Amino acid sequence: MCGAAGLWAPSCIASAEVALQELNATAGIAGRPVEIVVIDAALEAETPVEDVADELVSHGCIDAIVGMHISAVRQKLVATVRGRVPFVYTPLYEGGEASPGVFTIGDTPARQLGPAIGYMSAQFKLKKWALIGNDYIWPRVSHAYAKTQFHHEHRELVYEKYLPFSSKELADEVETIGKSGADAVLISLVGQDAVEFNRLFGAMGLSSKMFRLSCAIEENGLLASGARNLDRLFSSASYFAGLETAGNAEFREKYHSLHQERAPMLNALGQSTYEGLHFLARLVEQSEGHWLTREGVAPRPIEYKSARRGLYLTNAHNKSPVFLARANGFLFDDLTRLS
Question: Which residues are in the Leucine-binding protein domain (predicted)?
Answer without folding.
Answer: 3-298
